[in-house]
Amino acid sequence: MTSFQNSKIDTIVRVCRLIMRMNRTRPNARPSEAMYYQMLTNYFTRLLNARENGDFVAAHTVFFPAELIYAMDMVPMHTETTTWMTALFTGECSDILEAGAQLGLATEICTPHRGLAGAFALGSLPHPDVILWSSMVCDNTAKSGELIMELCHCPGFFIDRPFNDSEYEIQYLVGELGDMVRFLEEKSGRKMNWDKLAEIVARMDRQIELIRNINELRKTVPTPFHSQGFLELLTIDYLFPGQPESIEYLETLYQELTAMVQEGKGAVPHEHFRLMSLFIPPMYLIGFFERISQEYGAVSVIEPFFTYWGEGRLDRANPLESVARKSYMLPEARMYGPMDERTLNSIVDCAQQYKVDGAIYYADVGCRHACATIKLFKDTLNDIDVPVLTLDCDVVDQSVTSEEEVREKLEQFFELLEDR
Amino acid sequence: MMVDTTQKSNVKLHVLERFREVNSTFPKTSHLLDYKRSGNKVFGWLCTYSPEEIMHAAGILPIRIIGYSQEAELDDGNAYLYVNSCSFSRSCLQLGLGGGYDFLDGVVGGSTCDGARRLFDLWRNYIGTPFYHVLTVPRKYTEKAHALYYHEVAQFKQHLEEFLGSKIADEALYESIKLYNESRKLLRQLYDLRKLDDPPITGAETMEVSNASFRMPKEIFNRWLKDLLEEISASGNTHTGRSRLMLIGSVLTNPEFIKSIEDQGGLVVADELCTGTRYWGDPVVLDETKSPLEAISRRYLNNFPCARMFPSDERFNRIIDFIQDFRVEGVISQIIRYCVPYCHDLPLLTKRLKALGIPILALDVEYGTSGSGQIQTRVQAFLEMLEAKRK
Amino acid sequence: MIVAGIDIGSRAAKAVILKDKSILSSAICDTGPESVKTSYRVMEEALKGTGLSLDDIQYTVATGYGRVLVPYANQNISEISCHAKGVNWDFPSVRTILDMGGQDCKAINCDDGGLVTNFVMNDKCAGGTGRFLEMIAEVLNIPLEEIGDMSLESKSSIPFNTICAVFAKSEAIVHLRKGVTKSNILAGLHEAIAVRCLNLLKRISIEKDFSITGGIAKNKGMVEKLMEKAGLQPLLCEDPQLVGALGAALFAEECSTEVIKQAVKVQYGYSDGTGDYFITIVTELCNGCGECVKACPADIFVVDKDDDGQPKAKVKEEVRKKLAFLCPGFQSCSHKNQLNCHSVCQKDAIDHIW
Fold first, then answer.
1. Staple C221 to which of A367, B300, C109, C148, CB 3.0 to 4.6 Å?
2. Cα-to-chain-centroid distance, residue B142
């Protein structure tokens, strides 16, 4: 493996800084947005300098409880997000996808995972001291770790997160987390700081509360939070669980949105369509969707799999168990559990509470378990008279669809919504 | 070079015809229909982590859900599962949506892979089978994982007892274990015949027997397989080929695919398929320290692994053992498009095999394929390569 | 020793005749829809001017897409093995070959004897194959032979993210409308294809010496890009399209020396839309007893003198083209007739493919 070429992470850092500079010149730029980009800058800068600083880098997959990494004063590296950010900030990621293919990974393996394996192979990501992965949320994640261990010559730990949220299964997960802590202690020579973890868990509880409160505000007509803003909420959850900056960001955002609601201001001048986003739009079209949002007054008011948290509280007195329970409270947990009455009803509730006119399903061509629910959700939502548009795309691979195609489909969908 | 892998000089195996009959009439086989007519229940199960003995002990006939035997039009499957789900799950769903499984009283499976998970999600919402149960299957082999799986198996048993309104006694479980272990032993005997230099049975023929094993009552299957073993022994049949191959990868039930390899002269002497070796796999080991339920759950989790399990070395080591036992010269991996766990394993497995000097041919297939021209070209080139290597 | 190799590709059929281990002649023609007819036609072409006929050829090996359909072939060998063998003739130092054919792309590792040690194929789609470039040439309205050179004229190539034939076509048209020059578009496409090829090569191993075969090897633009990607100067055979047929002929040479002692077989029959219908008679084993002539209910056989004046069983000339109408195949016939050509043949010299 080639030695770490920091170009991609470097680019992310530079682009974040650029965005922050640009934001300073915008009259109505949100302070919370500036905080968000500062957080990203700090995160990736920390990664860039980890080696030099003698930090212990723990790479981990999506939905992995990074709280535990923070509690041990290690530097977390979120693998899939880094791949997405690469696509978002550098404009393309074909080289890491090609590198993934050269390893012998089939194109059926979704781009975030092919890309991250390729990125490790190319040396575009900092060398981790350990790779931590879990079975959340699909086979790709569950199987990604061993190849990374081989590519990076580092030890790894796999967390087997069970399918259902029965008490037994939650306790099994607690056991897995405990084993992982012991593994990390052994590999790093550091001890888990249980007090610090309790603090982080308490903050995470507050973090979830704040997101729920923000979501309450989004129920307002017109909705105050701009369409693709949910990406910030998502990233905060993935990269900064239970961190003080997250609380600061969310409290600031909450105040901003409260102010807007009080003034009756919406994210777009004329809110025309309230949309529910099912699954994640392609990273490289984020800007495009923002523009569409402004143009057509179509706003994404809620994302059941990314921002709509399930019931429950975290208890600092039982930190490990809380982290385990959180795994079942996550918005994404709905994707991993059974598609039973409970899950389908929660989607219906979501649509009704947020007064949704229509839903967009981003059919990521590499995400088979997400696409397999399209018909089911369509039928479920059609039952309550909410039409669903399916957009074939890929979260990072630009060749799957183009702006023109997406625009056409959206326009047709908006016409349909208009006619109702 | 025309190679004689035909049965021109070999005698026809009449017992094999019986198995073929079951396979071709499945699922509406005479056994199944008789079973239902006498008021008994038939359950469908998906994948090797579903504990059959429990269903059998409850007086149920467990048969495997394996979709269509050939590549089929999967319009409904595509509409519900979407085109990027593996064709195996789509094939099963297609058959299910079309009423092909409407005789089932229950459907049982595990949360084994994304394809299976989603198949069950859609089954539960769109196909009304009276009894439905999905077990959580851990991905590890640790004692904690065994405890979880045992818990799941016990829950399943309880759910089944509630459904049937009667308990499943330990005695019944012991009987079922005995019967299933007998099947496993007999299938192992059949496979062991292929350790010979010129095996008396081909890979395609073995698949036909294997296919029948999960499509019919084990009581009858065991008797027939004993008959077949006798017939083979008396036949003096032999099959020669250019090289000894092992077939690994995703679920496969179409013997035509294996035949298309063997027609080129590649003798398939071993496999790692969940419809082959992994099905009979290990026996349930009984001892005084374990209840029959514990013995069953331990066997099923420890069985020859699916690629979904961790660590993948468990699977790789078993494959390598087979390669050595059966003196395999080349491995053919056939992976269904979108079969993610197997796709991920391939780079690491290729590396392990390369270190041992075993070449591997990687084929992309769809479920039910019988072996297109493109596949034949690759297989032929692979066989030529193996021959060149021997020189 | 006169032997032949014939390569029936999806687009073009090629034949090479070797006499005493050197190339006597060769021919290329379009495959068209009827591979059997083509196999005769291209051989005829190759035989022209040599003073030889098909019967003079002692051993033929067929390769390529249509290899099983060559009625006069003694054997068929995969095009992968044949390419390695063919390249080895010109360049025994080559260890890595990239073959870009009409419908697929292959990366091959071979040893100093031209034997394959590893290979990987890509035929999931048309992207990156001859057919793809043909389509692009059409869209851009440029003759196929010129696209390579034109791509080299580019000063700034346009990146193409995909070489999926469907998407790339529309992408190219969009660029054209925007006023991007054809050479820049071509350069971009060639780059994208080269990346695809590199992926394939990396799945085996890139060792020197390196060679590119197939029709696309004549495209200078492609060769440039591939050289850049592989980091190796490719050695190009004089006629990259003939490599497969040449390799097949070389195998024929090897096999024929083995087979001289072994049986020589003659195959009669044909393939059509409903299947393959061939009867083989191992003339070495046949003693001309004539029992098959008597036993066959359809009167297909005749005993005649062969080139050495020995009586041998043959399938009658006039029935060869309608074999399936007269003979129901071995299974069917033997079911109804206990006495049939296989059962009466003491030497086991007759075989049916159906």
1. C148
2. 25
Give me the number of domains chain C comprises: 3
Alpha-carbon distance A263 to nearest alpha carbon in chain B (angstroms):
44
Would the CB atoms of A92 and C161 count as touching at under 8 Å? yes
Is B151 in CB contact (< 8 Å) with chain A?
Answer: yes
Could you tell me if C7 lies within 8 Å of chain B, comparing CB atoms?
Answer: no
The DSSP output letter for B282 is S
Query: Is residue A154 domain-shared with residue A178, that is, in the same domain?
Result: yes
Q: Rounded distance, CA A134 to CA A326, Å?
A: 14
Residue B311: cis peptide before it, omega within 30 degrees of 0: yes
Inter-chain touch C116–B374, beta carbons under 8 Å: no
Give the total residue count for chain A.
420
**Burial tier of B99 (Cβ tally within 10 Å: 0-12, 13-18, 19+):** exposed
Whether the CB of A91 is below 8 Å from some CB of chain C: the reply is no
Cβ within 8 Å of residue B292, ≥6 positions away:
B170, B173, B174, B177, B286
- Spell out the alpha helix ranges (H) of A263-371: 286-296, 319-329, 333-336, 341-353, 368-371
> Do A172 and A36 sit in the same domain of this protein?
yes
Side-by-side strand order, sheet with A57-60: A75-78, A57-60, A130-134, A156-159
Domain that holds residue A284: 196-419
Say yes or no: C147 and C282 in one domain. Answer: no
At residue A307's C-alpha, the angle toward residues A303 and A313, to 5°, is: 145
Residue B362 to residue C118, Cβ atoms within 8 A? no
Burial of A130 from C-beta contacts in 10 A (0-12 / 13-18 / 19+): buried
Q: Are residues A52 and A155 in the same domain?
A: yes
Question: Which of B8, B362, B388 is closest, CB to CB, to C116?
Answer: B388
The domain of C208 spans 92-236
Does A178 contact chain B (CB < 8 Å)?
A: no
Same domain, residue pair C148 and C224: yes
Bridge partner residues of A388 (DSSP): A359
Which among B136, B138, B343 has CB closest to A109? Answer: B343
Residue A360 lies in a domain: yes
The answer on A89 and A227 residing in a single domain is: no
Distance CA B305, CA B312 (A): 8
Classify residue C311 as exposed, middle or buried by CB count within 10 Å of its CB (0-12, 13-18, 19+). Answer: middle
Q: Which of B8, B377, B389 sits opposite C78 (nearest CB)?
A: B377
Q: How far is CA A104 from the centre of its chain?
A: 27
Helical segments of chain B, H only: 14-25, 30-37, 52-57, 75-81, 87-97, 114-126, 143-164, 170-192, 203-213, 218-235, 255-262, 277-280, 292-302, 313-325, 340-355, 373-390
CATH code assigned at A373: 3.40.50.11900
Selecting from B364, B385, B391 the residue whose C-beta is nearest the C-beta of C124 gives: B364
Closest alpha carbon within chain A to B362: A104
SS3 A28: coil
Residues A95 and A218 in one domain: no
Residues of A within 8 A of C162 (CB-CB) are: 399
Residues A66, A44: Cα–Cα separation, whole Å = 15
Task: Count CB atoms within 10 A of the CB of residue A210.
Answer: 19
Q: Do residue A163 and residue B151 have CB atoms under 8 angstroms apart?
A: no
The terminus-to-terminus CA distance of chain A in angstroms comes to 57
